[in-house]
């Protein structure tokens, strides 16, 4: 029998705890224990970005991030963005620009773009490409994603008081 | 926004709207439903134990150590499968693929056993403890070698019986040829004898795969007289038919539910994990989920590698007078849909050219590699790589401009394709001229200096949609006037739900946003042949249009029955209210579509009606080659597609750019590497796919203004057509830049540098 231990962390603004084994990934925990399915395992190697989660404000590959290390942290998933039923400007822009096809990689992209715009409110093409190079889209919606980043940047600037 | 239909109402044009995808909000919030996310009460996870040899007789399978692992529910081998399904072989063309290996294994990675456990980690740990022993047999990996039949993959051929052109292969022994398609038009040998020039080349393509980001996943929930399958499938109707056949059940006891797909591209067709989970659930008497890790996707289905021998005779005026094509398709260990690839693509092997004498032989071959199936083009991108490289090589050898050489030889509207089918709504000339104009072909190109050399290339291609196939749709208008569409087309990212809703909206005069496209469930959604081959918008589009028209006509008839004058402004809800005295009732319209088709004559492949529509595309590429490293930089990629009238132009454009990006990966770097039948780069770490940095600097995606006369609202499919020409356009541009001709994909720096060094007479020696 695998030894289990309890971890506690803040998940999408709420204090939670989970019983985990040492080999469990944070991705498994948010999916299996909290039914948050926006982050998905695809490559299983931290290369595609489908499993992106935000831990203490930084994007991580949820499939490689051991749940044990989440103890005491603050974790956010894509489901946190529309908690008030209002879409984040990044999400709005993705819909308007058609920046996805199958949608499997989309939550990972949305979270990375949000982090990009938090750091660089007005990124140029080169920065967008560099920042998003760790997220892959097999449907190849990259041109639309770049357009969505720019549109989201514009929306965020327009939405903020000067 | 109104959700109510009106009998006349204000016209709300839905066709041609750039409507964002209907499921957009679900997808950006992470709440879209995928089979990947589904869990059922009491569900077990299955972990597959796979063959480590490419061809061998199974001597023993020792599962005792796996069974002893705490938490293991059961370990299953073919012995257990045979007790619940006595003839556990499946496949769309041949019933050749066993649910778990029986007696023999035919490729590295073939499923041999499965461990079932509640905890997937336990199942994985235990599966590593299974020990199988094999008596190894000689294996054949190469398609041309396989055609010699010295090593035979299957003892006996087992065609499924559904295809007339496979019947003669029933019970045949001693061969790897799963289909031998022929086309014969005119007399090629005579024409070669009379030709001023004869050119012969051989081209090859590598093994690549779809790599949908939602890996293969299926769940079966078996009850004694009922089976429900939740599966990431592009063809729920086929799955139902095939599983019912395996069980010996009527189709109405088998239910297939398909939510959104995390990508498909042809991988998730026919049977993948569905038969396996069915058997496992029957054995375990509990729901069973098998969700493959990415590594195992490499052992499930791939694109066909191919060898293409092409020979052309050209007269003194630069007209092609004869062409012989021999195509060898490497289908891997199980036929899957390979014979259809060999035939339905094979007949277009002579390209978009008007050639008097044509001979085509296209062979679907078994080898001891992971099985190959459909991937975005059913073999056409591989063929186009060959014939459009060949076309350029001829033009260069004859010192004719490649554009001019194509102008002299293309088929024209109203002419006849090599099959004898007249060319209609296939404006090859318009695509070519659009390409020429947009590439500024008559203007000289900056050729670069020093070690950076620039060149440009173009290619054009044609494909026929697979025929004949059937689609059925139902439109249901509720008593409040809202409408639902039941259709089996699977939205795997191509935006079909949105396009179909636009068609319903157009006919019923309501906004497409208000149409509920019911998630696919074979208990409700009627038959559809499959979401494949760019057929859906045309075939299902017709069925949807017919269903919506029938519903509209019934609404108008109801208004007449109620004594209302024509053009009444009563809402549909008012009509129901008036009719039933309350908000009650339904109006149901159905539509069925199957195009006309005349099967090709055996032996000659000739038919006056091989397809209901053609797809035409062209690509122009400008590249910069680093002669020191062999690195090819794509400075410009222009895709020109002929897609009829776009129902949703924005989604069409995104299909074009996405398909082109995918083909760019297959062209520039993607390749499965093998060692003794074993894939040595079965992960995203070792198998590179296009990322955001691989976007060409200038990337243009254009359509030409056309209308498909027999299409629904003038439309036709767009999912495959952008893939056809990417590889040869880039290959031709590399030749233009540095004067080396690559005949095998991918066009990676190593291949380019080797060719450059060979040309300089200082070849790179292999270590």
Please give a structural write-up.
The complex is a heterodimer of chains A (162) and B (767). Chain A is an alpha+beta fold. In chain A, 34% of the residues lie in helices and 17% in strands. Chain A has helices at residues 26-32, 89-97, 106-119, 125-131, 142-159, and strands spanning 4-11, 14-21, 52-55, 58-61, 74-76. The chains are: A alpha+beta (162), B alpha+beta (767).
Note the main attributes of this structure.
heterodimer; A: 162 residues; alpha+beta; Ubiquitin-like (UB roll); DNA polymerase, domain 1; 5-stranded mixed sheet; 17% strand; globular; B: 767 residues; Aldehyde Oxidoreductase, domain 4; Aldehyde Oxidoreductase, domain 3; 3 domains; 8-stranded mixed sheet; 19 helices; 29 strands; disordered N terminus
Helical region count of chain A? 5
Give the overall form of chain A: globular
**Stretches with pLDDT under 50, minimum 5 residues of chain A:** none
Question: What's the rounded overall pLDDT mean of chain B?
Answer: 96
Please tell me the total number of domains of chain A.
Answer: 2
Gist?
The complex is a heterodimer of chains A (162) and B (767). By secondary structure, chain A is an alpha+beta fold.
List the topology elements:
The complex is a heterodimer of chains A (162) and B (767).
Chain A: E1 4-11, E2 14-21, H1 26-32, E3 52-55, E4 58-61, E5 74-76, H2 89-97, H3 106-119, H4 125-131, H5 142-159
Parallel strand pairs in A: 1-5
Antiparallel strand pairs in A: 1-2, 3-4, 3-5
Helix pairs in contact in A: 2-5
Chain B: H1 24-28, E1 44-50, E2 56-62, H2 64-67, E3 72-77, H3 78-84, E4 89-90, E5 97-98, E6 104-105, E7 111-117, H4 120-127, E8 131-136, H5 143-146, E9 177-185, H6 188-194, E10 197-205, E11 217-223, E12 226-231, H7 236-247, E13 254-258, H8 274-284, E14 288-291, H9 294-297, E15 306-314, E16 320-330, H10 338-345, E17 357-365, H11 380-397, H12 402-409, H13 428-438, E18 448-449, E19 452-464, E20 471-478, E21 483-487, H14 496-508, E22 516-517, E23 520-521, H15 536-561, H16 572-580, E24 586-593, E25 614-626, E26 632-642, H17 649-668, E27 674-675, E28 678-679, E29 698-703, H18 726-738, H19 749-759
Parallel strand pairs in B: 1-14, 12-13, 16-17, 21-22, 26-29
Antiparallel strand pairs in B: 1-7, 2-6, 2-8, 3-7, 4-5, 9-17, 10-15, 11-12, 11-14, 13-23, 15-16, 18-19, 19-25, 20-21, 20-24, 25-26, 27-28
Helix pairs in contact in B: 11-18, 14-15
């Amino acid at each position: 029998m695998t030894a289990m231990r309890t971890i506690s962390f803040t998940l999408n603004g709420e204090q939670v705890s989970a019983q985990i084994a040492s080999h469990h990934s944070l991705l498994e925990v948010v999916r299996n224990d909290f039914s948050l399915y926006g982050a998905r395992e695809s490559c299983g190697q931290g290369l595609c970005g489908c499993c992106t989660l935000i831990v203490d404000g930084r994007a991580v590959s949820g499939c490689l991030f051991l749940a044990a290390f989440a103890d005491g942290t603050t974790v956010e998933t894509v489901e946190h963005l529309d908690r008030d039923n209002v879409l984040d400007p990044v999400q709005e822009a993705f819909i308007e620009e058609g920046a996805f096809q199958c949608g499997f990689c989309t939550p990972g992209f949305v979270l990375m773009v949000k982090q990009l715009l938090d750091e660089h409110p007005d990124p140029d093409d080169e920065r967008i490409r560099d920042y998003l190079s760790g997220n892959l889209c097999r449907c190849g919606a990259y041109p639309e994603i770049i357009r969505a980043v720019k549109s989201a940047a514009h929306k965020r600037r327009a939405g903020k008081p000067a | 926004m109104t959700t109510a239909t009106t009998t006349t109402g204000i016209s709300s044009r839905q066709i041609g709207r750039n409507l964002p995808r209907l499921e957009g909000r679900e997808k950006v919030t992470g709440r879209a439903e995928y089979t990947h996310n589904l869990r059922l009460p009491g569900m077990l996870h299955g972990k597959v134990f796979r063959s480590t040899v490419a061809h061998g007789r199974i001597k023993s399978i020792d599962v005792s150590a796996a069974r002893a692992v705490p938490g293991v529910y059961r370990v299953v081998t073919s012995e257990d499968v045979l007790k619940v399904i006595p003839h556990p072989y499946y496949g769309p063309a041949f019933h050749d693929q066993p649910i778990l290996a029986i007696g023999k294994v035919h490729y590295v990675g073939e499923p041999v056993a499965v461990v079932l456990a509640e905890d997937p980690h336990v199942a994985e740990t235990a599966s590593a403890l299974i020990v199988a022993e094999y008596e190894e047999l000689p294996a054949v990996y190469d398609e041309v070698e396989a055609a010699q039949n010295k090593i035979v993959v299957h003892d006996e051929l087992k065609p499924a019986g559904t295809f007339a052109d496979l019947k003669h292969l029933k019970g045949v022994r001693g061969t790897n040829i799963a289909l031998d398609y022929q086309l014969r038009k005119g007399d090629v040998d005579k024409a070669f004898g009379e030709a001023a020039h004869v050119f012969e080349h051989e081209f090859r393509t590598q093994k690549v795969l779809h790599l949908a980001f939602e890996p293969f996943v299926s769940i079966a929930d078996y009850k004694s007289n009922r089976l429900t399958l939740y599966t990431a499938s592009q063809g729920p109707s086929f799955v139902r038919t095939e599983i019912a056949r395996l069980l010996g059940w009527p189709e109405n006891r088998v239910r297939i539910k398909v939510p959104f797909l995390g990508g498909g591209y042809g991988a998730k067709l026919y049977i993948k994990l569905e038969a396996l989970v069915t058997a496992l659930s029957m054995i375990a008497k509990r729901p069973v989920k098998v969700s493959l890790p990415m590594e195992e996707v490499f052992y499930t289905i791939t694109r066909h590698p191919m060898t293409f021998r092409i020979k052309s005779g050209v007269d003194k005026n630069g007209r092609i007078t004869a062409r012989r094509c021999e195509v060898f398709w490497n289908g891997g260990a199980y036929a899957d849909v390979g014979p259809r690839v060999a035939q339905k693509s094979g007949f277009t092997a002579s390209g978009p050219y008007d050639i008097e004498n044509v001979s085509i032989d296209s062979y679907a071959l078994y080898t001891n590699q992971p099985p190959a199936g459909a991937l975005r083009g059913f073999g056409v991108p591989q063929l186009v790589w060959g014939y459009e490289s060949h076309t350029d090589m001829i033009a260069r050898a004859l010192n004719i401009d490649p554009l001019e050489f194509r102008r002299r030889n293309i088929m024209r509207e109203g002419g006849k394709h090599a099959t004898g089918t007249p060319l209609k709504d296939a404006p090859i000339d318009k695509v070519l001229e659009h390409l020429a104009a947009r590439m500024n072909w008559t203007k000289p190109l900056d050729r670069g200096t020093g070690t950076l050399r620039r060149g440009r290339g173009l290619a054009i291609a044609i494909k026929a949609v697979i025929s004949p196939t059937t689609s059925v749709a139902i439109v249901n208008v509720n008593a409040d006037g809202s409408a639902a569409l039941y259709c089996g087309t699977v939205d795997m990212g191509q935006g079909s739900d949105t396009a179909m809703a636009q068609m319903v909206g157009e006919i019923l005069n309501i906004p497409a946003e208000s149409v509920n496209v019911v998630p696919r469930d074979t208990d409700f959604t009627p038959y559809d042949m499959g979401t494949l081959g760019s057929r859906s918008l045309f075939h299902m589009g017709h069925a949807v249009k017919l269903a919506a028209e029938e519903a509209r006509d019934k609404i108008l008839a109801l208004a007449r029955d109620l004594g209302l004058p024509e053009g009444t402004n009563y809402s549909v809800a008012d009509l129901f209210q008036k009719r039933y005295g309350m908000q009650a009732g339904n109006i149901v319209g159905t539509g069925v579509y199957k195009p006309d088709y005349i099967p090709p004559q055996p032996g000659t492949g000739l038919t006056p009606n091989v397809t209901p529509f053609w797809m035409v595309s062209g690509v122009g590429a400008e590249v910069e080659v680093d002669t020191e490293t062999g690195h090819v930089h794509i400075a410009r990629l222009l895709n020109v597609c002929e897609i009829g009238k776009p129902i949703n132009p924005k989604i069409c454009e995104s299909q074009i750019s996405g398909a082109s990006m995918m083909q760019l990966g297959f062209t520039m770097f993607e390749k499965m590497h093998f060692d003794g039948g074993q894939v040595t780069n079965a992960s995203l770490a070792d198998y590179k796919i296009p990322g955001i940095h691989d976007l060409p600097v200038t990337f243009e995606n254009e359509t030409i203004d056309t209308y498909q006369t027999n299409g629904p609202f003038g439309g036709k499919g767009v999912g495959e057509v952008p893939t056809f020409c990417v590889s040869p356009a880039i290959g031709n541009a590399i030749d233009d830049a540095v004067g080396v001709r690559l005949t095998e994909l991918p066009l990676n720096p190593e291949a380019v540098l080797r060719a450059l060094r060979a040309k300089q007479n200082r070849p790179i020696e292999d270590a």
